[in-house]
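Quick check before the chapter quiz. The format below is the same one you will see on the exam, so make sure you can read both the input and the output lines.
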Amino acid sequence: MGTELTGRRRRRAGWIAAGIFLVLVVAGLAVVSQEPSLAAHGADFLRGVIGDKAVASLETALFQFEDAIQRLEYSLGLVTPTVPWSGPIGTQVAIAPTPIPTSQQTPVPTPTGALQQTPVPTSPAVHPPPPVTPTTPSAWQPASLEPMGTLAGEGIWSPYIQDAYGRTVGYRTYLQPDKTRPILVDVVAMDLRHTRLHFVLGTIEPYSPNGPKRSGLIPPPDRVPGVLLAMFNGGFKAVHGQFGAMADGITALPPRAGLATLAIYSDGSVRMGAWGTESIPPSDMVAFRQNGPLMIDQGLINPQVNSFSPADWGYTIKSVTPTLRSGVGLSADGSILYYASGPFITVETLALAMQRAGAVEAMQLDINWYWVLFVAVRTNGESLTVEALDPKNMKDDLNRYLWPYTRDYFYVTGLP
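Here is the expected output.
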């Protein structure tokens, strides 16, 4: 009798534990969906309390549960992929030159994340805005991509970012590399012949206990209308891989041999490859960021994209777990920088999309909701405003990189 009673109690306790876990999963999904910022910072807090492994397991359960529901809905025809942005698709439009204020002023961010309209003087720009003279926008446009799904407009590039001359220097499109899910991967192509890429170390991450203080801020000369064109997220925290990072002569973490490295040089050129190879020479390098192995190497997808090893992809969640992911890549001649992101995708799905877009070298950047962010910077009089690449999945603290920020990130400026 006592053994039977004990068995009943254990089963009851098991059901109660399962019920509590289900409630936590549902609550977690609600928080991730409605308050990604709260969920992201909450996960960081939990890592310090219960450890990376426990948080990684919880994240895996949350994302796999929501993904299973989404895939079921898609298989039943209840949901379909939708175009991530409005506006003309694949149409080259003439953009009038953007007036540049002669006062060389920049807006002051407020604590709420909005941009205060009161400008303050700044030092002379490193890349001075060009004179406002009518010019004809360039005809540069990437070739249309072969669709991977059936959504109208897929693979057709549309104008997205213009410089002060009115040249379209950035295009965007979307791809559906996974036909089992109602998701799209958004891709941005930036013309590095008329733009310059920069890297900023966060005030805290990548964490370096004995390193010098970092501002975490875009230099004021670059943070002005007509110069600053776009900003996007960096990579994992130091604790998730100790991946190398350096900017402006400050090395937060030393490079690790063989890892994917995005390097920026003094002449403005950008290269990508495995550290220690001829494709990444250290001379004249002004910044670099590592974040695991290459996803794409010399045009081929790395078989490691399905690896479960934290040493490969950082101690977050398994690389095959669908979540919001981002990546960066380069064209064969190094003239086009690709940024890609998408919700509920694996590393392999991200790599497939970037390969189709034209990247011959590519690496993963940060993952999970809130941390993945790409914004185009717009001019509003003498102020800066931002526009999210994917408004549905990028919706919190869009101005974060206009402030001294705790995490590392990249930004793009125009050239005369």
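If your answer matched, good. The longest strand covers residues 336-345.
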